[in-house]
Amino acid sequence: MRKLYIWQWRIGLILVGLIGLTGCLGSPTSNQRVTVTLTDPSIQSSLTAFNVNTPYQFVVTNKGSVVHEFMIMPPPSYTQHMSQTDLNAAALVMIPSLQAKETKEINFTFTHGNSMKYSTGMDMRGFEFASHLPGEYEKGMKLTISIIPGQ
What we know:
Layout: H1 2-25, E1 32-39, E2 42-45, E3 49-51, E4 55-62, E5 68-73, H2 76-79, H3 84-90, E6 93-98, E7 103-109, H4 112-116, E8 125-130, H5 136-139, E9 142-148
């Protein structure tokens, strides 16, 4: 009987240790929330540097009085001679229409595959949040962001 009690006690300690270790490791990765605000005519963001392989939840709110779009774009050097159709295809993320006072959410993870195709070497700076609706980009509807490569 005493051997059974010692055995149960040891199993109990092992389980407590495993539960404690699991708690130290944390819960599964959740999306990091990024608040993006579109106004007439600018873009602000709670974050402008993004890590590769980190999931993000972009919460985009149009606080302006007209319709805007939200795109995560490759560097301007890549897109400067593109048509609107090409820009849409090149966007890493796109919310094509946000009505005034509307909020939309989109989840996205930057990877080497989706970011590096527009970049040379490991330089992933110069990406942008932008709106390319007629005249908006030229009026300032853009915000430079950086994508930080993983190690």
